[in-house]
Amino acid sequence: MKNFTKELITAGFSILLLSACGANNDTKDKNVAKNAGKNTEIQSLKYAHFMPASSWQNKTLFNDWADAVKKSSNGKLNISIFPAQTLGKAPAGYDNAKNGISDIAWTVQGYTANRFPLSQIIELPGLFKTAEIGSCAFQKLYDSGALDNEYKETHVLYVHTHGLGHLSTKEKAVTTLADLKGLKIRRPTAVIGKLLKELGAEPIGMPAPRIYESIQHGTIDGFMLPWEAVTGFRLDEISKHSTEFGFYSLAFVATMNKSTYEKLPANLKKAIDENSGMKWALIAGRGFDKADTDSLPKIKKTGIIHQIDPSEKSKWITAGERVTKAYIEALDKKGLAGTQTYEKIKTYIGECQDSKRKRNN
């Protein structure tokens, strides 16, 4: 009887032990399932920009990026696009990403003056001729770490440029510096404003979405934009003359709220990382080049495109060289690597041109 009782107690203890182990395993399995759920939970991010909803950037560049991220995340990361300043005015784009008003923003660095002084070296005249080459060199510069201090508040996805910017005016044809003297011309950034001032114009700062109204009201006589933006903002409707010169190219950044990125699970971070860097810098640059080519015939139908005589053009080029020299020297005096960064950019431009030639051969 004692042996039977002892065996019964032992059996009961074993059952309790097995039950406890089973309970622990169930809890562990539930935790694993819960954690796995976190990695597969569908998340949504807000992507803000200032281009019109009808623009090629909104229809292709931004939506294509959103589709690529969704595909890379197996449908677990949805990007909602907010065009035309619906999540904040253009000059606030970078801060809106930094502060979480938008999760992602695409904006112009120069809209916040003196914040990205080394990045804006890419805007100086005469460096390159296409957005593809400019974007390639700019992304190489960013990847080198030379610009880390300028973007430490956000998580950069990629940087790029647009194509060459030209001059458009409402009424007056401009083919000489004398023609340009005293005209109120919209400048996109302070760097381009210095160039306009050196050329004899009166630069007026404003983001691109304000140009149409300002031209209508006579606040400005003209503006500086690449061809694609002239049609993108419907400015070909109100400008009769354009002067083809290639004054500048703007710096752009697509960037993400740092905390939003860091809180993503590893698989969703990977989806973002797979759609960052040089791949998308080149997609953006090539997109801008194509859009310039596509826009030019439309501009020619509604207005006149003027060329600058070679003897006159040398004066414009010399003015640009003075602006470049003054800008780089000012950076050096502030203790920033102006000269070093400028030389790096020229090296990267050469590398990008060589790479393109090899691809085309």
Q: Could you please describe the fold and organization of this structure?
A:
This protein has 361 residues and is of the alpha/beta class. The protein has 2 domains: 41-116 and 130-162 and 252-288, 3-Layer(aba) Sandwich (D-Maltodextrin-Binding Protein, domain 2); 165-250 and 304-360, D-Maltodextrin-Binding Protein, domain 2 (3-Layer(aba) Sandwich). It has helices spanning 2-40, 56-72, 93-99, 131-143, 177-180, 190-199, 211-216, 227-232, 258-263, 266-273, 278-302, 310-333, 338-360, and strands spanning 43-48, 77-82, 104-108, 154-161, 165-169, 184-187, 202-205, 222-225, 241-248, 251-257, 304-307. A 6-stranded mixed β-sheet has the order 7-6-8-5-9-11. Strands 2-1-3-10-4 form a 5-stranded mixed β-sheet, sandwiched between helices. α6 (190-199) links the parallel β6 and β7. α2 packs across α10 (266-273), α4 packs antiparallel against α11 (278-302) and α6 (190-199) packs across α12 (310-333).
